[in-house]
Amino acid sequence: MTDAVLGIDPGAISGAYALQWDDGKIVVGDLAVVDGQLDAAHLTRLVRDQGVRLAVVERVGAMPKQGVASTFKFGVAVGIIHGVLMSRLIPTHYVTPPMWKRHHGLLQKTKEDSRALAIRLHPEVLGLHLKKHQGRAEALLMTDWYMNKEKRP
């Protein structure tokens, strides 16, 4: 299967992804971690093996009141994501949370609201049933945002 759109909700050790194909197939999961850091090799294999044609990555920054070590770890993870996508020559769209959330009517809503919407829109998708799957849901909603944006005139 080729031509997947990959959505990524970055996290230092809690990032998630969604893969969505034009034929409607969707797969969600957590970004792999090894030795406390995002596993670049696993992400590279995911991109290569799933035929990713384009990525949608949430544009993120440091969170207020986050510690220096946590901020650094998060920055390294985001850098790994960007580096893997660039090294595989994957066109990447960076989307701010307000941009994709506005599209879905989720401004001023919680991550749990995002998960509930993803389940309503995609009841067939496995891997959204637990509260900790909020990142997966948001990655999926980002791919939805892109695919709907792509179809607009």
Total E-strand runs: 7
**Low-pLDDT windows of residues:** none
CATH-wise, what's the superfamily? Ribonuclease H-like superfamily/Ribonuclease H
**Number of helices, counting only DSSP H or I runs of 4 residues or more:** 5
What is the beta-strand fraction?
A: 15-25%
- Give the proportion of residues in helices: 40-55%
Tell me the distance between the termini: 27 Å
- Largest pleated sheet: 5 strands, mixed
CA-atom Rg in angstroms? 15 Å
What string gives the helices and strands in order?
A: EEEEEHEHEHHH
Count of domain modules? 1
Structural class of the secondary structure composition? alpha/beta
Strand order in space, largest sheet: 3-2-1-6-7
Q: Per CATH, what is the topology? A: Nucleotidyltransferase, domain 5
Written overview of the protein:
With about 150 residues, the protein is of the alpha/beta class. The protein has one domain (about 5-150): Nucleotidyltransferase, domain 5. The chain is built from five helices and seven strands; from the N terminus they run E-E-E-E-E-H-E-H-E-H-H-H. The chain has helices at about 40-50, 70-85, 95-105, 110-120, 135-150, and strands at about 5-10, 15-20, 25-30, 35, 35-40, 50-60, 90-95. Helix 4 (about 110-120) crosses helix 5 (about 135-150). The radius of gyration is 15 Å and the shape is globular.
Quick overview:
With 153 residues, the chain is of the alpha/beta class. Helices cover 43% and strands 20% of the residues. It has helices at residues 40-49, 68-87, 97-103, 111-121, 134-151, and strands at residues 4-9, 16-20, 26-30, 33-34, 37-38, 52-58, 92-95.
